[in-house]
Amino acid sequence: MPKTERSKTRVRKDQILEAALRCFIDHGIAATTIDMIRLESGASVGSLYHHFGSKEAIASALYIQGMEDHFHLLRESLEECRSAEQGVKTIVRTYCEWISDHPDWARFIFGSRGEALSEEQEQKLREDNKAHMNFLQEWFRPYLEAGELQDYPFSVYHSLLVGPAQDYAKHWLSGRLKKPLQDYTELFCNAAWETVSP
To answer: pTM score, two decimals?
Structure first.
């Protein structure tokens, strides 16, 4: 397929995913119909089925793409870090910025994992998460070995670093807290560093 056709296909798929996200946020996955997504996206039913196959596949693709988008952004950001402190703060900052830039997508991810993912997609997500955690562990290894970070089990690092921001984000996204997550990004970055610094 020529490059221009591939890019048109990518654009069309993204338009469908964006329309589906709006529908899922407004109505929930179960209540959203293919026809609602078709109307919201302007795509034909044939196009929806050609690109995704089903409403459930659209929900899975939306979930997986959101996670991949965040992972990709984080990896790019970490490549520019040259210290443990920069890395820790970058993880938290990237997390907060991604959620702030994509509140509906984050809301969807936080609230629909069990409903959005088939067993096959759940397995893919587990594999993606494992690869992501392996990447982070390798990135932090030299700093852990040099004593520049607390020697906690790596399995708790995610909770220590982004747990407080994640908790606040869920409350903010649900409307229970009014002050935007981004207003507290630096506070969460500094708290994370204080938690894991030696």
So the answer is: 0.90
